[in-house]
């Protein structure tokens, strides 16, 4: 049974997503609230949206001078999740980071998924001819690795390796705000995945996922 046949047998829960259009799925956070696609969870004026995900058994990691191909481990798959972040507030804020404070985390069945490339030095990933900018690179390109001001927008991808027979209902993305030692006001926002938010690589259109509210 291939991946899509397997997913067709799994019951849908709420996810995280837009699939390149303004209709479709429902975003459901694990705190009990629900949001239609295009609605974002916000913190201090910064709106964060995991929009969709892509599965692949192999890809290329692209650097400034070269690239190298990588294959998922036996029985595993790479899951690439697209993140959109936009500052609509009125003061300097910090975007979630993936290298310094590790603010974006993936959990499966309540256990943290530690096999990731979120701190990868690769500038982008190529899957079946489509190149996806890494979230870390997108932060650096927008000078968003430190405090940013209103109007700043970042779109990029994070990568994890998970079991290929994973159940989307058990997969959660967590974002931690104010994730600093002894920092007051820490807040965690959560989303769950569904098979409906899986996007074929041919349907990925970067820079087209933000929806005005």
Compact overview of the structure:
With 213 residues, the chain is mostly beta strands. 6% of the residues lie in helices and 40% in strands. The chain is globular and about 45 Å long.
Spell out the key features of this protein.
Immunoglobulin-like; mainly beta; single chain; 4-stranded antiparallel β-sheet; 213 residues; 16 strands; 2 helices
Overall description:
With 213 residues, the protein is mainly beta. It has one domain (3-201): Sandwich (Immunoglobulin-like), CATH 2.60.40. The protein is built from 2 helices and 16 strands. The strands form 5 sheets. It has a 4-stranded antiparallel sheet with strand order 3-4-7-14. Strands 6-5-11-12 form a 4-stranded antiparallel sheet. The protein has a 4-stranded antiparallel sheet with strand order 10-9-15-16, with no helix packed on it. Strand 1 (26-28) and strand 2 (34-36) form a beta hairpin. The termini are far apart.
Unreliable residue stretches = 4-38, 207-213
- The level of helicity is under 10%
Q: How far is the N terminus from the C terminus? A: 40 Å
Decide which structural class fits the backbone.
mainly beta
| Biggest sheet overview | 4 strands, antiparallel
Strand tally is 16
Per the CATH scheme, the topology name is: Immunoglobulin-like
Radius of gyration: 16 Å
Percent of sequence in beta strands: 35-45%
**Number of separate helices:** 2
Q: Judging by the overall fold, what is the CATH architecture?
A: Sandwich
Q: Give the CA-based shape.
A: globular
């Amino acid at each position: 049974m291939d991946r899509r046949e397997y997913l067709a047998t799994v019951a849908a829960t709420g996810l995280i997503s837009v699939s390149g259009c303004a209709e479709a799925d429902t975003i459901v956070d694990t705190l009990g609230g629900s949001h239609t696609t295009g609605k974002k969870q916000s913190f201090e004026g910064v709106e964060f949206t995991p929009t969709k995900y892509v599965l692949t058994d192999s890809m290329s990691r692209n650097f400034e001078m070269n690239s190298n191909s990588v294959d998922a481990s036996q029985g595993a798959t790479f899951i690439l999740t697209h993140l959109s972040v936009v500052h609509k507030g009125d003061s300097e804020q910090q975007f979630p980071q993936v290298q310094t404070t590790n603010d974006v985390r993936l959990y499966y069945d309540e256990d943290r998924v530690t096999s990731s490339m979120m701190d990868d030095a690769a500038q982008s990933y190529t899957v079946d001819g489509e190149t996806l900018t890494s979230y870390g690179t997108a932060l650096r390109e927008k000078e968003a690795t430190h405090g940013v001001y209103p109007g700043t927008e970042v779109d990029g991808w994070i990568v994890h390796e998970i079991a290929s027979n994973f159940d989307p209902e058990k997969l959660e993305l967590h974002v931690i705000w104010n994730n600093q030692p002894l920092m007051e006001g820490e807040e965690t926002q959560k989303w769950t995945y569904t098979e409906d938010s899986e996007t074929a690589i041919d349907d990925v259109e970067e820079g087209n996922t933000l929806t005005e509210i």
